TrEMBL record:
Protein name per its UniProtKB record: Metallo-beta-lactamase domain-containing protein
Domain Metallo-beta-lactamase: 44-252
Molecular function GO labels: hydrolase activity
Annotated Pfam families: Lactamase_B_2
Alphabetical list of InterPro entries matching this protein: Metallo-B-lactamas, RibonucZ/Hydroxyglut_hydro, UPF0173_UPF0282_UlaG_hydrolase
Amino acid sequence: MRTAINIILLALLLTAQVASSQTRKSLQWIGGPTFVLHLGSFKILTDPMLGPVSDTGFMIKKHPSTGQLNAPIKRLAPPAPLDTSRIDLLLISHLHADHFDATAKSFLQKQLPVIAPASNRDMLVQWGFHNTRGLPWTDTVLLAKGAETLRIIAIKARHAAKEPLNSELGEVNGYVLEYKSGRSSYRIYWSGDTVWFDDMQNLLQYGRIDLFIPHMGAVGADGHIGRRGLNTAETLQIIRLLQPSLIIPVHHTTFTHYVEPVSVLYNAVHQTPFKKRIVKVKEGKIVSL
C-alpha cells in the first residue's frame, strides 16, 4: 500500500512540475543585448556578449560617435552568471561586434540551434554553428514540445534612419515570439537594433504584445555619422503604438558606446499612462513575466 501511495505521490509531483514548467515565464538580463528567456519549457539566449569587464570589450570597425577606425569599446559591467545548459535556441538580431563577441564564439556549444538574419547564416556556419537557419523578414519558425509551441517571426528592423549608413550597417532582425500552452498565449516583441520607421505600423497585425524589449542607448547620437538605434522619443512612439503590458529595456549601461542613459527612458515613461508597465532591471536580475 505504501509503495502504491508513493508512486501516486511521485506521479502527482511530476505532473505538477510539468505544469509549472509550461506556465513559467521569465527574463534574465545578462548585459548589453544579451538576455535569457524562459517561456514554459523553452529556453532562449539572445545576442551573446559574454566577455569580462575590459577596456577592450570588443573592437568596432568605426566608432559610432567619433568615427575612429578599429576603436576599442569598454565593457563596464561583467556579464551576469549564465546557465548555458538546455538552451533550445540561440536567437540573433545581427552579427555586429557588440552583439556576438569572441568569448561567446569559443564558449557556446556549436551544436546549438541558431536563428539569425538570412545574410548572417554563412558567417555563423564559418564560426562552427552548423545548425543555423537564416530567417528573412516575415518568415516564421515553429518549435513544439508536447502541448507547448513557440512561434518565431522575423521582423524588419532598420539600423539607421538615413542612407547610406543604414545600408552600410547591413541586415538586422527584430522578432515577435508567440508562446502558447493550451489555451494561453504570450507574445513578445524584441526590437533588435532599430530606429523608428513607418513600417512598424505592421507590427499591429501580430496581435497584442505582452512584452516589449527595446534596444536602448541611442548609439551614435552624439556624433556626426548618425544615430543607429532607438532613443527615448522613438521608443515612446512604439509603446504608444503597441500598448504593451510590460516593457523591459536592454542594450544599455553595459558598454561605453551607449550614449543615452536608460534613466531618460524611465523618467519619460513615468510621465505617461504606461508608468507602471516599465521594469528597471540590473544585470543578473530575473523578472517574472
